[in-house]
Design goal:
This protein has 99 residues and is an all-alpha fold. It is built from 2 helices and no strands. Helix 1 packs antiparallel against helix 2.
Length: 99
């Protein structure tokens, strides 16, 4: 009788997550901060290059100013996220308050 199949569904064994929740949240915040810095920095740099070509006779400083603005904006968002920002993705930088 041990060889006969039963109608009970088999459950997969439950394994605890390898990382604590706080470490996972911190990793998510770092991932978001780094990706934001790359995206905003490259957008600022490209905007500065376009302005440099069109208006400033191919000078270097508009591209560097654009890069600085992009990285500064990314730093500001990361600072807010690490201080009191979102705990999970999907909140889009807004803090959820329950009433």
């Amino acid at each position: 009788m041990a060889d006969t199949p039963s109608n009970e569904p088999r459950l997969a064994p439950v394994t605890p997550s390898s990382r604590p929740v706080s470490e996972t949240l911190l990793n998510d915040k770092w991932d978001r901060a780094i990706s934001s810095a790359v995206i905003r920095g490259s957008l600022g740099l490209s905007f500065g290059v376009v302005l440099s070509v069109l208006l400033f006779k191919r000078r270097r400083w508009p591209a560097l100013v654009g890069l600085g603005f992009g990285l500064g904006r990314a730093y500001e968002e990361a600072d807010v996220a690490f201080k009191n920002g979102p705990t999970r993705s999907g909140t889009n930088g807004m803090r959820l308050v329950r009433s």
